[in-house]
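Handout, page 2. Input:
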Amino acid sequence: MDKKELRKKYTKIRSEIKNKKEKDEKIRENLKNLEIYKNAKSVFVFISYRTEVDTLKIIEMIKEDGKKLLVPLVKGKGMIAVEVEGIEDLEPNKMGILEPKEGKEEIDVDLTITPGLAFDKEGYRLGYGGGFYDRFFEKVDTIKMGIGYSDQKVDKVIHEDYDKKLDYLLTDEGFEKFDK
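Output:
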């Protein structure tokens, strides 16, 4: 299977995951208890879309915990981290994904919470094919943590030389650290 077919397969798997609300709550609890989260002064997190892990309550938690909240703003083929106060600062883009209207690029990012369709045992993720996170990770020195459901864990994901490995994966089942 090529990446396009795999994306279709894993999108379907993710859409059929049961007990999402309970798993989202467990992921949020797991995140709150992590030292890398506790120590982070700034957290860059995606705005959940469709069947992704619900990050809206994570966003509320980040603000309640007094951390700098950074969210993605797509600019052409790139993505930057922009500070916002909360969901009210966002509006749907042309794909219907919430993002800031504008903002200044932040490069001091302690922790980046990254989406994916599938995550493998080596720390590679199958994304949506735009390369936004790989390009972001090339220019920003940050802890790279994938976030997903345990159902999204696989043995191996097809990856290219330019694909960046994650440092960690957080799921409803817990936390994994990957070798560098």
